Amino acid sequence: MHDPQWHERAACRGHSVEVFFSEDPEDVRAALELCQQCPVQQPCYEQAMADREHFGVWGGSTERERRRVFRAERRRRREERERRAA
Ligand code: SF4
Question: For labelling, which of 4, 15, 36, 63 has a CA lying 20 to 30 Å from the CA of 56?
Answer without folding.
Answer: 4
